């Protein structure tokens, strides 16, 4: 009712939330059926991955295999939040849904990532075969 009674002119104020800290796109190439070398954790209905915020249901990088296609960019870090895989959003996503998006992605893969949580010692979580 308030909009109808506002008269001929209406002033709207639009506020944009700031971009997440560390927001960046990371690209790497993958041949069909080639392992990406990335383990993920988190997602809705999963145990919390971000120990700084137990209500955070984001998808995070858990492990990066040394010398894998994911490691080659040099930009991915353990604890980073993955927002998108190619054009698919991971917001409100289950871990299995995110894993399936990784499995079906071939060729050039684009990840939209931002800072997530910091690990005390990243070398503990890096997988060395």
From TrEMBL:
GO terms for biological process: cell-cell adhesion; establishment or maintenance of epithelial cell apical/basal polarity; receptor clustering; receptor localization to synapse. Keywords: Membrane. Pfam families: PDZ. GO terms for cellular component: basolateral plasma membrane; cell junction. Residues 25-113 form the PDZ domain. GO terms for molecular function: protein kinase binding. It is found in: Membrane. This is PDZ domain-containing protein. It comes from Panagrolaimus superbus.
């Amino acid at each position: 009712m308030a909009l109808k009674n506002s008269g001929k002119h209406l002033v709207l104020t639009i506020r944009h939330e700031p971009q997440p800290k560390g927001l960046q796109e990371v690209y790497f190439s993958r041949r069909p059926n080639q392992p990406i070398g990335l383990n993920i954790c988190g997602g809705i209905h999963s145990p919390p991955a971000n120990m700084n915020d137990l209500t955070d249901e984001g998808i995070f990088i858990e492990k990066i295999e040394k010398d894998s296609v994911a490691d080659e960019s040099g930009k991915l870090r353990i604890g980073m939040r993955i927002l998108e895989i190619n054009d698919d959003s991971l917001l409100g996503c289950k871990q299995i849904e995110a894993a399936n998006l990784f499995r079906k992605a071939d060729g050039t893969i684009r990840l939209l990532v931002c800072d997530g949580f910091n690990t005390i010692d990243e070398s503990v979580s890096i997988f060395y075969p």
